[in-house]
């Protein structure tokens, strides 16, 4: 009896924490940090577990190896549950021996899931977990005709300036209207000529998993430098309050932060780590194989603005708190 009790006790403890480290295999810190965020995305895991891979899935199939890696990560006796996934990315031309951009690998992984998954219905559901729909509206100032182009984002890019800012201000700025004139003038199909116009974005729909990419890398004549600008972000947000009403058609949409992918170092020599809000309602800091429980105060230290080599938040993942299922395109 005693044995049975202790076994079930340790099993529960493992399940409750749900966070484990991943060894660094030839510069895999970027993929490791991303895998931690995927492991924390229970919505993604549920969809992957519903998928019955067919025999035609073949070798080096990204969705299949991701499904296997996420399952293997739950077994803490496995020292490196992510090796096959790393190898699989490598064979899909995401070379693991070079420095990656976490947002690029995030996009590449989700796009390869769309391409390589035998069940296209589940593949579409996975995509819809992340898709934010934004219309870019350009209004001709001559005839007032509005040209609308729908855009779908897996992660919302936020462009930073040198000055300290907030997530809300970054969002407000990226939705702001701007006048297009002179060489930037827009071709109006109605007037059949380039005319001055006003261009702005409108938020159309939000996903269950809302991902922001803080664009900290800036390319200046072939040389990439990193912006350590301070960008503060709250633990919970209401998207209806984050974007001016005239640029949004979403109602109350509350989200909670559950993963922060962190970049430290310079654009040339960097390292990725992750903060994860686990199912046991605690924050953890994961630096490859090293895992430590932390406070929200520690997560806030990744806002940036603390010197050249400080840890800075690079990707933020929020999940919906709304009871209503968000509308997907
Ligand atoms: Zn016009």
UniProtKB/TrEMBL annotation:
GO terms for molecular function: cysteine-type deubiquitinase activity. CDD domains: Peptidase_C19. GO terms for biological process: protein deubiquitination. InterPro entries: Papain-like_cys_pep_sf (IPR038765), Peptidase_C19 (IPR050164), Peptidase_C19_UCH (IPR001394), USP (IPR028889), USP_CS (IPR018200). GO terms for cellular component: cytosol; nucleus. It comes from the Eukaryota. It holds the Pfam family UCH. This is USP domain-containing protein. The lineage of its organism: Eukaryota, Metazoa, Chordata, Craniata, Vertebrata.
């Amino acid at each position: 009896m005693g044995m049975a009790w202790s076994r079930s006790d340790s099993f529960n403890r493992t399940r409750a924490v749900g966070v484990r480290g991943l060894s660094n295999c030839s510069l895999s810190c970027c993929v490791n940090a991303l895998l931690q965020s995927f492991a924390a995305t229970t919505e993604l895991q549920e969809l992957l577990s519903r998928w019955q891979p067919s025999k035609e899935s073949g070798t080096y199939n990204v969705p299949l190896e991701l499904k296997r890696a996420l399952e293997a990560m739950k077994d803490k006796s496995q020292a490196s549950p992510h090796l096959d996934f790393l190898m699989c990315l490598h064979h899909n031309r995401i070379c693991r021996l070079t420095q990656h951009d976490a947002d690029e690998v995030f996009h590449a992984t989700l796009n390869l899931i769309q391409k390589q998954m035998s069940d296209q219905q589940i593949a579409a559901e996975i995509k819809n977990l992340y898709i934010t729909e934004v219309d870019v509206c350009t209004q001709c100032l001559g005839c007032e005709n509005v040209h609308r182009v729908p855009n779908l984002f897996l992660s919302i890019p936020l462009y930073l300036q040198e000055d300290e800012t907030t997530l809300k201000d970054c969002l407000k700025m990226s939705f702001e209207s701007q006048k297009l004139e002179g060489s930037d003038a827009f071709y109006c199909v109605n007037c059949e000529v380039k005319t001055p116009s006003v261009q702005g974005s409108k938020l159309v729909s939000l996903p269950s998993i809302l991902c922001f990419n803080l664009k900290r890398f800036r390319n200046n004549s072939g040389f990439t430098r990193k912006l350590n600008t301070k960008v503060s972000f709250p633990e919970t947000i209401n998207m209806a309050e984050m974007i001016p009403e005239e640029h949004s058609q979403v109602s109350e949409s509350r989200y909670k932060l559950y993963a922060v992918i962190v970049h430290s170092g310079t654009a040339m020599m960097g390292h990725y780590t992750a903060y994860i809000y686990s199912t046991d309602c605690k924050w953890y800091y994961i630096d490859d194989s090293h895992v430590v429980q932390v406070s929200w105060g520690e997560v806030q230290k990744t806002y940036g603005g603390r010197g050249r080599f400080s840890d800075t938040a690079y990707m933020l993942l929020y999940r919906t708190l709304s009871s209503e299922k968000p509308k997907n395109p």
